[in-house]
Amino acid sequence: MATQKKPNVLFVLSVDTEEEWDWQTEFPQYNVQVENIQAIKTFQQECNYIGIRPTYFVDYPVVNNSKSAQVLKSIAEEEQCEIGAHLHPWCNPPMTEENDEFFSHVVNLPIELVEQKLVNLLGLLRSTFGKEIASFRTGRWGINAEIMNLLIKHDIKVDSSVYPFYSNNYFSCEGAPIEPYWPDLSDPLKAQYQQSSIYEIPVSVGFNHTQFALFNKIHKLSSTPLLSFLRAPGILWQLKLLRKIYLSPELASAKDMQTLIKVLLKRKSPIIHMNLHSSSLINLPYSNHPFTQQQILENMKKTISFLQEHANVTFCTISEAKKLLTQSEVTQ
Ligand SMILES: [Zn+2]
Description:
Helix content is 37%, strand content 16%. It is of the alpha/beta class. It has a domain at 9-206 and 270-282 and 315-331: TIM Barrel, CATH 3.20.20. Helix 9 packs parallel to helix 10 (293-310). The two termini are 32 Å apart. The structure holds zinc ion. Residues 16, 18, 86, 88, 139 line the site of zinc ion (ZN).
């Protein structure tokens, strides 16, 4: 039987490692719950079994709690993961801003306040783990030039705050590259090759067609008021004509993620970047997702075994991915 040569691809799993709460209620500031972190012990064993080297983007309440910090410390000491930083402004001191929707987005905070929060977060992470903390993701996504430059100042080498094809009232990631890139420091949603201080590795998002840009236009058009009144996005989804798929086992079924992976491999993507939230590792009384904790794990495992069938996979952390991708850039 003739076997087609499988492509080589990197696989990164990033986990927003944070408190659990009901997103329908206000943002928790003090006495936050971090029970979900205990579930990382078994989750990491599953990852070890498959070969995954997770990147845990850890936020302030998690590292500030000795019990939860200990769980991550023992995994980090075994070199089975990478610890990165995750900034939730509402529960990261100093909390001087209003606790509301607007200020929950890092891009809306005065840069001096972002810096104070970042210094507190990185200081505690670095002293707790005794390791270099070189990767970062904003809470609720989104980045701008000021924040990107601030990250460089504080020795962050990889950012992962870009959520391709996503926009809300406060920021837009529309038009950002979907593959890893050196961001333009005056406009981090654009790639340029003049700087090598910080690298951007977005999460994998795409469509069930290889021409992402074109299908993003159609998707956006179908979401305009008139067409969305006609339920165009839903109809297109049902007909499988157009699906925007997030590579997150919380948001997408294994089948949809497999479709996205097929498309990404066809597009010769060098990396597949899946992401989830640590709070998905336990079943919560309030539901943030359409899937249970067990289904989320199943979605993840099925998707990864599909990927392994179709590609030669190198599992790595986000900083390892940066190293591998930028090395090959030089040798090309
Ligand atoms: Zn978060």
